Amino acid sequence: MQKVLVTGGCGYIGSHTIVDLVQAGYEVVSVDNFANSSPDTLDRIEQITGVRVENMAVDLCDLAATREVFAAHPGFAGIIHFAAHKAVGESVAKPFKYFRNNLLSLINVAECARDHKVACLVYSSSCTVYGIPDKLPVTEQTPVKPAESPYGRTKQMGEQILADGLKGTDTRSISLRYFNPAGAHTSGMMGESPLAQGANLVPAITETAIGVRPVIEVFGDDYDTRDGTCIRDYIHIMDLARAHRLSMEASWAGKLAGEPEFINLGIGEGVTVLEAIHAFEEVSSTQLNYRITDRRPGDIPAIYADYSKAREVLGWEPEFAITDIMRTAWEWEQRRRTQ
Ligand code: WQD
Questions:
Q1: Which listed residue, 158, 225, 246, 300, has the most CB atoms within 10 A of its CB?
Q2: H/E element holding 136?
Q3: Which residue among the candidates 12, 26, 98, 151 is catalytic per the annotation?
Q4: Cα 198 to middle of ligand 1, angstroms
Q5: Sign for the pseudo-dihedral over CA of 11, 158, 91, 243
Q6: Contacts with 221 (C-beta within 8 Å, 6 or more apart), sequence order
Q7: pLDDT, tens digit, 9 for 90 and up, residues 188-205
Q8: CB 265 within 8 A of CB 180
Q9: 151 catalytic per annotation
Q10: 101 alpha carbon, distance to own chain's centre
Q11: pTM
């Protein structure tokens, strides 16, 4: 049974990826220090898969502790590195916290991957590396532009650190550029559990619907888009999770030419904020209380993906649409409040 290391394994994307890996027959070791997640997630993974995944509560900014993980588990076939802080707004307020945590942890993991000749390191990157794209949809050839936040800059720098640090080694780096991850596991037993109130749109919608938030603010309706609100490419968390496994499998099968490799993960459909709100109202048969407010600094008007590379080299196709995102997110929001 091939063994895979998943850092940030108790986070939103990490946990869904672990479920996908375990159900596909892989042995998984998680590393998560619960900085932005809860050990309860390991119970949820076990409820869904029947497997108790080992988690090592290690701070990956500590090189000696990171080395211990690899000493305890020689022979990882692949690594998926999620562990990072990801709140755009917080990164503006605390840039050093973001540069230290996101880059130091990445460097330590990548150095150990190189020393242990791990075949591939899949990196959690983001469409924020494109800044404000000149042309849509965005392909992997779309020029990278100055990021709009320190968070986005850590993603850009992370890609370059991997490109330089793993060049000429046995470890291939694969940077997956996520668009907007959203939704919850179709089992209804796991989903996004932001420790603080969700800053992202979909948790903000479900928190408003369930009443823990009085109203949802729509950050501006004066953009140059079809209804004036921002356009994003929302990708279901299970579609996103599956793409991580397919990336490693494609690398092991010699199907990836790039050293490093960059792959967009979005579903190629742009949805405005108001369209997302109306999609939620439709699937939940509720009326959402929202109001239009000022623009949020740093927001870009529109971005959505061309995912043809993921289709061609990974054999990946999205299986969920915005309505599935809203249905599963709503199911989870209702259930998580009763647990
Ligand atoms: C989406 C749209 C908001 C909340 C960020 C990061 C990205 C990734 C996902 C980590 C925007 C609008 C939102 C609200 C609103 N981060 N909105 N009211 O900013 O596209 O992407 O999160 O993985 O890297 O950049 O996502 O969900 O915050 O916003 O009107 O209460 O919804 O203005 O247009 P974003 P988001």
A1: 158
A2: none
A3: 151
A4: 10
A5: negative
A6: 227, 228, 229, 274, 292
A7: 999 998 766 668 999 999
A8: no
A9: yes
A10: 17
A11: 0.97
